[in-house]
Each structure stands twice: as structure tokens, then as C-alpha cells.
Amino acid sequence: MKDAKARILEQVRDYHGTEEKEFEPGVTAVWPSGAVFDAADRVALVEAALDMRIAAGVSSRRFEREFARYFRLRKAHLANSGSSANLLALSAFTSPQLEDRRMVPGDEVITVAAGFPTTVNPIIQNGMVPVFVDVELGTYNTTVERIEAAIGPRTKAIMIAHALGNPFAVEEVARLAEERGLFLIEDNCDAVGSTYRGRLTGTFGDVSTTSFYPAHHIAMGEGGCVLTDNLALARIVESMRDWGRDCWCEPGEDNRCFKRFDYQMGTLPHGYDHKYIFSHVGYNLKSTDLQAALGLSQLSRLDAFGAARRANWSLLREALDGVPGLIPPRATEGGDPSWFGFALTVEPGAGYTREGLVAFLESRKIGTRRFFAGNLTRHPAYLDRPHRVSGTLTNSDIVAGHTFWVGVYPGLTEEMVRYIAESVRDYARKNS
């Protein structure tokens, strides 16, 4: 059987191939995002499948250890998506185990309007009130001043994403949160490998989240993770991810605590099987070993992927410097982003529109994406939801109408990136 498996995996390596198609401008699709896989990734996935590791198991636990080690944090818990990771991260603060610090329905959470909905949805799903603040044009992040002005008597937490991989001023925000007794949830889904003042994003908050959807820095197909240095919060996250159970045995493991039939919790009878005692309202949000095996293979190239993203972004930034009618992106002061995308805002007074530029790029097979929701408060899903706006959302409205982004992911060659830049520059100069 071992020989058969080795032969199959060798065939998988051969099947993967290394031939690259020649880039044809206007013919070859230039995607804004995507996963980059090599033969080792394909072999890792197939090997897990051959071993029928279809649930969370040895690869999942190993990935959690290695991913936590990358961030120098104590705990990482895999989930089935970054969105589920966000749900777990915020829901953890509703645990009765936090006693008087527990968040309850009606409490407020500060977030940004210009972002992705699943940063905000956990707030609503837990019966809390999102407090929306505006962002800066260029960095597309909010500021400490805007966050501080939004704090009210019922504010209990801050939950914000690093915009397109660009860190917000997270050290200062973490300090503000500590001073005001607020929880900080870092949505790090677009920013794995980014640093702020020399420290990895995802390490400043009480908890942080990542995503392994193919558009992100490493890919598992689907998947996400919750990370924390706080062991009590980690235990709550694990419970909520694993149906809400109080037991911490791994699947297939029994009586790790040596008192499985000796607990008395809630109003249950003494000795009720600990494997079926539930201390939280939870879900089954685990990932699988198929995903984790692929993630482990990808993790070895995380720094190389980040270097490619930075190089592609820098090439675009230099090539588009001074293009009329465009607000170029910029890194937050103190940040070294592992960029998710390259954002461009067409100035309201430019001689052309975002719609026109995007249509031109798409006609040349250059993929574009909106800056996510633009302004969440204007979407049908949120019109009748309780929320509060602090200050104005002027820039969020500009983002909704005038901003889009193009790719910098490692699958783009230098030739592709230069083609993007030339296309943007040519259109802008002809239509200004």
C-alpha cells in the first residue's frame, strides 16, 4: 500500500506540470485575485484525500500550532471560513464566563462603513449595534480620532479590518481600547504578513481573524482562523466552534480530563456525560484535514507570497504616479502592508468616471473589483437594522461611487502588472 501511495503521489507531481502559458495582452485574463498552487500543494491535498482525512484531525492541529507560532501567539483555532472566524471572534465576548465584562444585546461595537459585510454581520447577529465611522481616502482606513469620537456609554468593542492589507493605526487603537476598557477584534483576513511599527498585524487585538479563501494570502479553498494570546478566550472560541460543548476532547478521544462522568453543570444530574454538556450556544464551524493539509503546504511560502504582493503593488504605484484624475493608494504611516489589492479612486472632478475606466479595463481582460460594500449603510440588508453613525460618512460615499481595485496577487507577472498600469494611464490621459 505504501508503494502504491508513493506511485500515486509521484504521478500527481507529474500531472501538475510546470508549463506556463505565454501572456497575451487583451486575451489572457489578468485576475484581481487568486490562489497560487505548486506541485507540493497538489500532492498535500491528494495525500490527505488518500488517507481519507475528511474531518478535522492531525493536519488541522498541526496547522493551528504552526500558524499560532508564525504570529507568536498562544492559540489558533481553524474554522470553515473567515466569516465564521469573525462570528466566533465577536461571539466569544458574549460568553457568561466573562461575567461582568460579558457583552449583551444592545451593546455597541465601533466599525467602519466602507468594508466587507462579514466584519459587521456578527455584531448584528449577536443583537448588538454597529457604530459606523468614516475612512480616509488613500489609506481607506479609519483613524484613532474617529474611533475615539464614536465611543458612547454602551460601547464595548472595536471590530475593524485592515483595508486591502493596509494596517490601520492598530497600536494606537489597541492603546485606546485598553484605556477605555474596550475589546479589540482585529479582522486580519486581508492582511496576513502585514506589519505595523514592525509588529505583525493580527497580534494587537484581544482576538484576530484570518481567511483562507482563494483570494487571500494563503489558500485552503475555504477556511479561516481565530487567533489569541488569551487562553480563556481561546477556550470559549473552541467551545463555540465545536457545537458549544464544554468538553475539550478531540474527535475520537475520550475522558481527557479523567472525570468525564463526574461533572455537575447547570441543572443537569451529577455525572452527566461531559461530552454532551453544552456551556455555550455554539455551532459546528470546524474545517477539515483536506483544507489544513493544503494550508500547511501554502504556509511555507507565506513570506514569499507577501514579497510578491509588495513588489507588484510598488510597481503599480510607481507606474501610476501623477496620473491625472486618480487618488493613488498609500500605506498608513508606520505600516508595511502585505497588500491584498491596489485601490484607485477616480476624483469626482476628473474628466472621466470610475464606470468608464472600469469598463475599459474589463474590455482589456483586466479584472477589477469594487471596494467591497463601499458604504454598508446604503445596502438593502442594513437599511432597517439598528445602527449609529458617528460623524459623517462622506468618504465612504466617495468610495461607494468612485473607488475600485486591481490585483497584486503573486500569480501576476511583471508583464501583467505593467499592462494594468499602461491601460490605466492611457485611458486617464486620453479622457482627462
Automatic annotation (TrEMBL):
GO terms for molecular function: pyridoxal phosphate binding; transaminase activity. It comes from the Bacteria. Its cofactor is pyridoxal 5'-phosphate. The keyword Ribonucleoprotein does not apply. It holds the Pfam family DegT_DnrJ_EryC1. Keywords: Aminotransferase, Pyridoxal phosphate, Transferase. InterPro entries: DegT/StrS_aminotransferase, PyrdxlP-dep_Trfase, PyrdxlP-dep_Trfase_major, PyrdxlP-dep_Trfase_small. CDD domains: AHBA_syn (cd00616). GO terms for biological process: polysaccharide biosynthetic process. NCBIfam families: PRK15407.1. Belongs to the DegT/DnrJ/EryC1 family. L-glutamine:2-deoxy-scyllo-inosose/scyllo-inosose aminotransferase subfamily. This is Lipopolysaccharide biosynthesis protein RfbH. It comes from Streptomyces termitum. The lineage of its organism: Bacteria, Bacillati, Actinomycetota, Actinomycetes, Kitasatosporales.
